[in-house]
Every structure is written in C-alpha cells, then in structure tokens.
Amino acid sequence: MSQLRHLAVALRSSGQWMRGHVGTGRRVFDPRRNCSSGAAEPSLAACSSSYVVEMYYAWLEDHKNVHESWDAYFRNAQASSPEETKEKRLSTLLQGRTMSQTPAMSQKVVEDHLAVHTLIRAYQVRGHHVAQLDPLGILTADRNSFNPSDLIASIDKLGSYGLDESDLDKTFQLPPTTFIGGNESTLPLREIIRRLEMSYCGHIGVEFMFINNVEQCQWIRQKFESPGIMTFSDREKRTLLARLVRSTRFEDFLARKWSSEKRFGLEGCEVLIPALKMIIDKSSEAGIESVIMGMPHRGRLNVLANVVRKDLDQIFCQFDPKLEAADEILYHLETDKNIILSLMANPSHLEAVDPVVQGKTKAEQFYSGDTEGRRVMSILMHGDAAFAGQGVVYETFHLSELPSYSTHGTIHVVVNNQIGFTTDPRMARSSPYPTDVARVVNAPIFHVNADDPEAVMYVCRVAAEWRNTFNKDVVIDLVCYRRFGHNEMDEPMFTQPLMYKQIRKQEHVLKKYADKLISEGVVTLQEFEEEVAKYDKICEEAYTSSKDEKILHIRHWLDSPWPDFFTPEGEPKSMSCPSTGLNEEVLRHIGEVASSVPLKDIAIHSGLSRILRGRADMVAKRSVDWALAEYMTFGSLLKDGIHVRLSGQDVERGTFSHRHHVLHDQEVDKRFCVPMNHLWENQALYTVCNSSLSEYGVLGFELGFAMANPNALVCWEAQFGDFHNTAQCIIDQFISAGQAKWVRHNGIVLLLPHGMEGMGPEHSSARPERFLQMSKDDPDCYPEFTGDFEVQQLYDCNWIVVNCSTPANYFHVLRRQILLPFRKPLIIFTPKSLLRLPEARSSFDEMTTGTKFQRIIPDDGPASRNPGKVKRIIFCTGKVYYELTKERKQLNIEEDVAIIRLEQISPFPFDLIKDEVERYSNAELVWCQEEHKNMGYYDYVRPRFLTVLSNKNPVWYVGRDPAAAPATGNKFTHVAELKRFIDTAFNLEAFKGRSF
Q1: pLDDT over threshold 90, residue 46
Q2: What is the Cα–Cα distance from 805 to 958, expressed in whole angstroms?
Q3: Containing H/E element for 958?
Q4: Is the model's pLDDT at 427 over the cut of 60?
Q5: Nearest CA-CA partner of 2 in 84, 76, 61
Q6: What is the pLDDT of residue 930?
Q7: 175 vs 811, more confident
C-alpha cells in the first residue's frame, strides 16, 4: 500500500489522473483513458506505462477497481507465470521481458519511468519559457523572464525528477503522448532530452498544452516532435531567400528615396513578407480562394507591394501611409491558382480593424455558400503592445466560436517588437506573453525567433494546416525588433539605450540567411547578388514611372466587391429613388405570417400567442405598430432577394419584448421557428442573431459584413441607444469618416433606442448630438441642386440621421436605404414608449404604392387650413411630438399653433423647412426638444433654421436646461421638467421682451 500511495503521488505530479465514482471511494479505471486508441481492449502499445502501473496495483488491491477487460488481462498474465512476484510481473509488463528484480529495484524502475514521462510533459508544457526566441539575445519573450530551473541545462537538473547522470544512457519506454521517438518506442534518456530541446527549446516555442482536446494536442505534438520534420528543399530555400530580398530591399529603397518621411517600415521583421506568403500558399493548396487581411501601420506598404502586389508606381506616386485604402488584387501563386487578397482599410486605432475583417470574411463566406470556411479565410496582423492592451482583441476572439459570427478560424500574426511606442513589456501588460489573450479560446500559440527564417516558415506552414484542419484560430508570435524607432523620425535611444545598442550591432536577417545558403551550396554569391540587383531595378523603374501625373488611379486598386453598382468612374448609375411603398396584398401577406406560427408543432408561450393575436387584429384593421412595420420592411426586402441581417444584444426578442422574430418551443430545447424565413418560396435568407455582450467588436463585425454586398440590409441594434458609446471608435473612425478616408460606401444601419422616459441617465439618450456634430453638411449654406434635392443631398452627406415618429416612416426609411442608388450609413433613433403607444400607429394607406419617406411631417390639423392665423410653429422630432399634441388639444389652441415633425435631421431638409416657414409667414418659430439644451438637436438645427430664415427672425428654444448628465435619475424631477417645458412651448407670451 505504501508503494501504491507513492505511485499515486508520482502520477499526480506527472499530470496523470484517474476517474472515481463519487461517494464510493472506489477507483474505477476506463481502459480507453490515456490510450491513443479508443479501443476497449487492453493494449500496452496504446497506453501509458504509468497508467498500466497504477491499474496493476489497483487491481491487486481489488479486482473490481479496473475494467473487466483489464481484469481478464491481469488474471491471464498471473496464470501464465504464477511463480512471479508482482514486482517481476510489473517489470515484464513495462519492459516487455522477464527479469529477476528485488522490490526495491522494481520500485526504482517504476519511479524512473514516471520521472521520464514527467520530464517529457514538462518540456511540452513549459519548454517555450527557455526557447531561444529573442533575435537580440538580451531578453526573453515573456514579461517575467521566468525560466523553469528544471529545464535549464536539464542534464544538470535531473535531480528534480529523481534521476541522475547514471540514468542518461538507460533506455526508457516512450509514452504515447510524444512523437520524439519516430518509429522507435524506446530511447536513451540522453537522446530523449536532446530531442525535446530541439523540439521545444530552440527557435520555436509552442504553447498548446492548455488545449482540452486530445486529438488537437496530439496533432501539434506530431508537427513539432517528429524527427526530421522541419526540413525544406533547396527550391523552397531559394524561394524564401528571394522573398526576403524583396522584403528587405523594398524597405531599403524607401529609406533612400524618402529618408525624412514616416514610413513605419518593417526593418527588424522583414521575415513577415515570406511568412504571409507561406500562409497564403499553403492555404491556397488547401482550397482557399479568398483571403481578407487586416494589419496596423508597421510594414503596411511592404505588404501592399510584395504580398497584395499593388503596383509599385502606384505606391510611390502617392507615398503617404494615411492614404492606404482597401485593396482587392489577384495574386498569382506558383501553384497556378489565383487567389483574391483584400487588405482592409483601417485607422490609427490599431486593433479596431480586427472585427471589421471578421465581419467581411463572414459575409463573403455567407454569400458564397462557404459554410465551413473552406474557400474564404482571414489573416490578422497585430503589434505586440496593441494585441495585449486593446480590449477589442478579446472581444473579437470571443466572436470566433459563435455560430452567427464565426469565420471558422483566423490566423493571427503578431509582429512582436518587444516594445510598444516607448514602453517596454514590463509596463505594458500583466500577462507573461502579449499573446496570452488567445488562450481564452484554446488557440495554439507558436512563438518563433524572427531571425530564423526557416523556423518562421515552418511555423507558418503548421499554422495554415491547423486552420484548415480544425477551423480554429491560431496565433504566430514573430519575436523580432524594430531597427528604428516607432517611426523613422523617432529616437529610440532616449528610452531603450541598451536594446538599441544591440540592435545597431545586429546583422540583417537577409545577410545571415544568404550566408547560410551560400555555405550550404544552395545558392552562389553571384546568384544572390543578381536577385538583389533584379529587384532594385524593378523599384527604380517604378519610381521613374511614378513621376507621370497620369499614373495615379485611386479606383484602380480599390476594393470593388459591388459589381454593376457604380459606373466605371465610380459614380452611381442613377440619381433617383423610386417609391418605397408596397402593394397592399404584399403588406397583408407579411402581416398574416407575422401573426402566425409557420411550424405548427411548436408550442409557443401563451403570452406570445396573445401578441400574435394582437398583430392579426392590426392587420385586419389595416394598421401597423412599430414591430409590425419592421416586419413588413424586412419581409418585403427578402421577397426581392435582399438579404437582411439584424444583430445585437437580445435582438431576436427585442430589448422591449416587442419584436419576437424567433419563436421558441416551450417544451423542447433548441427548437425554434423564424417565421420571417417562411414568407416566400424563393426569398432571401433572414439572419437575426443575438450577439455577445459586446458593442465595439460586434458593431465592427457588422460594419465589415455590410462592406461585402450593397444588396443587403445589415442592421446593428444597441440594447439602449447610449450603449454605442463603447463602440465609439468604430463610429468615429469607420462609419462617419469611412467614405472620406477610403472612398468606400457602406450602408450599415444603427438602431439606437432613444427617449426621455424617466429611466435615468444611462438608459435615455442615444446622444444624437454626437452624430449631428459629425455630419458634414454646411449649416450656413443653403444647398442648390439641379436634380432631385432629396437624393442629391443624401449623396453629398457622410451619413443619414433620422428620428421617425411613425411606423410608416420607419418602414419607408429602411426600404429607401436599399432602393437608393448608393449607400450611406443610416442612424435611426428608435422609440421605446412609442412601440406600444396607440397614437403611434400607421395605416396601410401610408405604406402602399406611391408613398415614400417623409423627411418632415407637416401639421395636418386645423392650423394647416388657415396658416395665416397661426401664431407659432413648433418644430420637434420624435416622441415629444405626441406630448405636444396632447397638450395642444387640452388647451384648445389647435388653430393657433402648428406642430411640425422633423423626421430626417441630417442632412437637414432645407427645402421643406423653407416651404413650411413661408407658409406660416406670420408665426414665430420654436424648436422644442425633450433633451437638455446642450444635448440633442438644438445646436445642430438652430444655425440651419437661421440660414433658411436668412437670419432675419429668431428661433426660440424650448426644452430642458443645460446639464452634465443626459437625464435625471429621479422620476419626480423628470416629470416636473417635462411639464415645465411643455407649458413653456404653448405660452404665447413667454418670449416677449427677450432679445435674440
């Protein structure tokens, strides 16, 4: 029993474990555990010897402790040699031969085998900590400089495992969890250590033992442990050298021609270019046809030139990193296959492009029917400091396994400078490696010394094979350095003097690798020099050509995934928008499906049955509420072959329990129905998907999805409008300015619940002032157009901002988004209380053929019939309209006050506002809003009203006073504020004596 306890301790320390029955204390062994095969029959060849040891001792204690097949096996072994002691029999089991040993000798054999197995596991788990990853040889790749003492000069540290130098030449049985033996099942300890150090402690460090999938771990072990597996042919080496020449000489050329420019060059990590090309080559061999890439500044020009193959004269002609845009160019591979490479545009917010790339990748997979990511994939490049420091990286990783967001594996390449701008890793992150965030999704991480090109190529080959085998993310950590500072004008010696003293002495990787191949006889010095001269000549000729003013053709290299949408010159093919109304039969059909359960055997919630009956009642009365209008919008677009995608937190049901686009069976888990996909026989697919609790990552994803196809309505809904604040980077950098920066249209729709409902400062305002401030229309200039004013104004704007007060107008603005001959982002401030307000319903008559979106909704009451007698016009937008009309009716002044709704706020409908002002020529103008004066719409609309009025008349403000918070947290105060400004809106004497 003492031996048994000793073995149990040893097994726990080696990572082996056993399964027990809860509460019984009995250990029952499964013959398939710790065995490389899944067979239930006992097999010494397939099972860990340490596992056999413990099973044998447990069997001696009680035959019922093991599976019946092993019970039979041990009984037969004992019957065949009953005279043997258990120690002799165990030795026979372990070493395959019968020998006479004392109990002490037998225990030493067992302990030594366990120790060797533990040593092997230690290298697999922690060998990366002692790998030679830093090209400079002055740092370790991990932040803590942690070196496992038992793996440093491990021959001298054998005592940590109960071994000593006398054991080095002993032969040990290898466990099935290692491939270092190749075809051999036993090796001397000295050779075991040598092979482990070659596999895990050289220029490659592998992190994978945290992965909880045996098959995947074994796959990685085989790729890095099998003897002789990391080999390259002479042809492959020559190709690698040629790619290094291009990468290095491109940077040298830029440095000579533009020595005073910020280039964010690749010096110190020139191996990135051949690394990317290896990934692309191997992925193409596996069937990949399209690769979408995203990357930060460093090396971007080099990637464009030598991976994407953008013409060099185009790069030199507009040499400015700020002008880089998305590219889609055919890249001809040596395998005679064409593959489309798309390098996504991105801003200085380094990792913001990550979810955008994923979204576009998902869209291309979706539209091409690539449900498993076998034809379309993504590659993301990162900097080490940004990868560890920016939360959107974590958000993007957590989308990787979600059904509606997975792209079936992304290859992440981290250009690990071992420094941020001027901040070293000890101050920049708490995790040992910058790549540790990838462990949350069990992605293997391959650290590699970037000054060993062949090691890099091997890692990239394995990464491509991993992605195309398991369709999961993988990370390549290229441990390198920056030869210059953060940019070429920077002085790094100010903050990293020791590192940069070493860098100045560091031999270039091209020189080192060329010398290596020359010494091996793979190439001659003359061949190498000719390769260099050949590429230098290409660069010089492109430089000369770039001076021709006719050479710059921006649209020549822009990403063009929207065939037949624009003219060859990049202009819309028309500048008109057809009616957005529908035939009543179509509306009624959609309404009937929206009121039913197409799959009859689904048991829905009783409360949902009541909601569906209410919808049916509305259809019968030819009216719609907000949810039904949305249903009719989406359904009508699906009928026309337009894919509709709605994404966000809880969008399937709707935050306010109004949508219910997914009907869940109350009895059967995971059984549900999406009625929207049962509208028409040959309709497009409707995708509605609850997202993770992320705004930044998910909005970026949906933006990327919307880039892929103009004939799709892609909507992202915030749970509450102000929740977009954590996605502000995507809004500022991509949505607002995307077309201006990168000449790219995008039709994404943001649905932002907004309204002062007394819900407090965090659930009231969608912060419309932010969107309006970033709208580019000139407040002081009345626009003049020769064609359709509405369409021309929309074409000139950077985005459209609306606050619809009726379901019909919501219906029309969404349909207009698709029927317009171009695409602009659409920001919609959606309601909360209006979702169920009886007054906020629309008739079919407002949605049928011939109707369209109303940029403003004029007053249609008594005031409109005698405009000359109207004393005041109140302009407003959104929910406050219903509160104003209610108060006006109670005061019985419907002939004295006109209330006009501004539905499209930006671009400002100058033409329609002018018509209304001229119509009520004797009335004073009031702008009324429920938001505080320094928020909402007032600062945007006021100067534009004055432009309409030629600055001759004032526009009075009615609303809440300025405040720091968007809304009060006290319900009593909220009601008091509302009453005060509503009273003021109708106090016709309120403004007398006040100067403007």
Answers
A1: no
A2: 19
A3: strand 955-960
A4: yes
A5: 61
A6: 96
A7: 811
Give dist(CA 596, CA 290) in Å, integer.
41
Residue limits of CATH 3.40.50.12470 in the chain: 584-754+803-846
The angle formed by the CA atoms of residues 965, 969 and 973, to the nearest 5 degrees, is 100
Q: Which pLDDT does position 574 carry in this prediction?
A: 76
CA dist list (Å): 459 to 378, 456, 738, 865: 17, 5, 35, 78
Residue 199: both structure tokens together: 């596999």
Which one-letter DSSP state was computed for residue 142?
A: S
- CA dist 205 → 134, 170, 215, 449, 843 (Å): 11, 28, 20, 9, 67
Q: What is the average per-residue pLDDT within 597-622? A: 92
Q: Are 647 and 635 in contact (CB under 8 A)?
A: no
Q: What percent of the chain has pLDDT over 90?
A: 64
Given a contact cutoff of 8 angstroms between Cβ atoms, the answer to whether 718 and 695 are in contact is yes
AA identity, residue 364: E
Nearest to 236 by CA among 6, 397, 454: 454
Q: Find, among 305, 208, 179, 216, the residue nearest to 253 by Cα.
A: 305
For the segment 47-63, the average pLDDT, to the nearest whole number, is: 67
Task: Tell me the fold of 584-754+803-846.
Answer: Rossmann fold (3.40.50)
Residue 17 in contact with residue 3, Cβ under 8 Å?
no
The first and second tokens of residue 895, run together, are 């002939």
Q: What is the DSSP letter of 381?
A: E
Burial of 441 from C-beta contacts in 10 A (0-12 / 13-18 / 19+): middle
Range of weakest confidence among 78-82, 114-118, 379-383: 78-82
Identity of the residue numbered 6: H
The residues, any chain, with a CB within 8 Å of residue 682's CB and separated by 6 or more, are none
What CATH number should be reported for the domain whose range is 234-556? 3.40.50.970
pLDDT reading at 826 higher than 90: yes
pLDDT for position 488:
67
Contacts of 567 (CB under 8 A, 6+ apart): 573
Return the percentage of the chain with pLDDT > 70, whole number. Answer: 84
The architecture in CATH of the region 859-985 reads 3-Layer(aba) Sandwich (3.40)
- Give CA–CA dist 320/304, Å, rounded: 13
Q: Give the total residue count for the chain.
A: 996
Residue 776 to residues 662, 747, 779, 794, 801: CA-CA distances in angstroms? 39, 17, 9, 11, 12
Q: For residue 620, what are its two tokens? A: 């019968």
Burial of 560 (0-12, 13-18, 19+ CB in 10 A): middle
Give the contacts of 527 (CB within 8 A, at least 6 positions apart): none
Q: Where in the chain is the domain with CATH 3.40.50.11610?
A: 859-985
Q: How do beta strands 171-173 and 376-383 pair?
A: unpaired
Q: What is the pLDDT of residue 227?
A: 94
CA trace torsion 777, 782, 785, 788 (10° rounding): 70
Q: Report d(CA 857, CA 803) in Å as an integer.
A: 12
- CA nearest neighbour of 752 among 720, 788, 792: 720
Q: How far apart are CA 904 and CA 901, in angstroms?
A: 9
What confidence score (pLDDT) does residue 620 get? 96
Q: Is 235 exposed, middle or buried (0-12, 13-18, 19+ CB in 10 A)?
A: exposed
CA angle 549, 551, 557 (to 5 degrees): 140
Structure confidence at residue 144 (pLDDT): 63
Q: Taking the model in full, what pTM does it have?
A: 0.87
What is d(CA 563, CA 711) in angstroms, rounded to the nearest whole number? 11
